[in-house]
Design brief:
Blueprint (H helix, E strand, L loop, with lengths): L1 H23 L9 H23 L6 H29 L1 H7 L2 H12 L7 H22 L1 H6 L3 H31 L3 H20 L3 H12 L3 H23 L2 H8 L2 H12 L8 H19 L1
Length: 299
């Protein structure tokens, strides 16, 4: 039950972050809040790690745990979050949240390809449903009416590519994150180290990429409360996800957090009326993605 509660809290926090990213950015902005979210997560998790350690003692940290958490940081905190923020910036909160159902798809694919797990009929059915969900969004984005109403076709396709890379990064990183927690069961430490590595990777890339460099400068040169809120909620969502993984199986956590798409849609209907609207295609894609996730996990 504790793990379930943390998973639901994580889904809610990420849904709020999706909405506030849309409120705080425009498609052409160099700074979409991804870097400040990494700094906030590092600070919040670091404070929690110190406070919990001084009160209850610090769990022993092994070199293997550091390696797993650092690797997970590159995959989830940098690739997953940076591309995830870009996906929301381009597509909007509702369509971007629907693409996150690719996470369990890649998790299953990695389990079969890397860990040698058996592909069950339920997993096959679930993966097909998730592929259908993603295909519906892409095909709908290419339709002339959808392009005129929401975004140019090329921009939408780039947004879905961001979502694809983000999902692959998150799915890969979750495997490393679970391995790190098996070595050192400290969610605060794992989150702090992972996002610190992600932030340092962001700065390193900024030395060679003008957009990343502009995002780093923009973090310290402008007051953007919506992006600060998004960063805070992303931070709390990631910390809650770590605690959920520590208390519950990764499959159960994945199923509960897949409710993020419906929470995002609910919030978007009330808070994003001027920015985007819920279309039948997005809702159907969300349902297909959720059913696909359930089929993978339950059958």
């Amino acid at each position: 039950m504790i793990g379930d509660a943390f998973a639901l809290i994580s889904a809610t926090c990420f849904a709020v972050a999706n909405v506030t990213i849309v409120r705080g950015t425009a498609p052409g902005d160099d700074d979409n809040g991804a870097f400040v979210s990494l700094l906030l997560t590092t600070a919040i998790a670091g404070t929690g790690w110190l406070a919990w350690g001084f009160m209850h003692g610090f769990p022993p940290v092994t070199p293997h745990a550091i390696a797993w958490f650092a690797g997970a940081g590159v995959l989830t905190a940098f690739i997953g979050r940076v591309f995830g923020y870009a996906c929301v910036q381009v597509l909007g909160a509702m369509r971007a949240s629907a693409t996150k159902r690719l996470n369990p798809f890649f998790a299953v694919a990695l389990g079969v390809g890397v860990l040698g797990e058996r592909l069950t009929p339920g997993a096959i059915a679930g993966m097909l449903l998730i592929v259908a969900s993603f295909a519906l969004l892409v095909v709908r984005a290419a339709a002339p009416a959808a392009a005129a109403a929401q975004a140019p076709v090329r921009g939408a396709r780039i947004g879905y590519a961001y979502g694809l890379f983000s999902a692959l990064g998150y799915a890969s990183g979750y495997l490393l994150r679970k391995m790190g927690l098996a070595e050192t069961p400290d969610a605060f430490f794992g989150t702090m180290l992972g996002t610190l590595v992600g932030a340092l990777t962001f700065v390193f890339v900024g030395a060679f990429n003008a957009r990343y460099a502009a995002a780093v400068r923009g973090t310290f040169s402008a007051w953007r409360p919506w992006l600060l809120t998004a960063g805070t909620m992303s931070s709390l969502g990631q910390i809650a996800y770590f605690f959920a993984l520590r208390e519950a199986p990764i499959s159960r956590v994945a199923l509960i957090t897949s409710m993020e798409v419906f929470i995002t849609i609910f919030l978007g209907v009330f808070f994003l009326r001027r920015h985007e609207s819920l279309t039948p295609a997005v809702f159907v894609a969300a349902v297909l993605g959720f059913l696909g996730t359930a089929a993978i996990i339950l059958y």
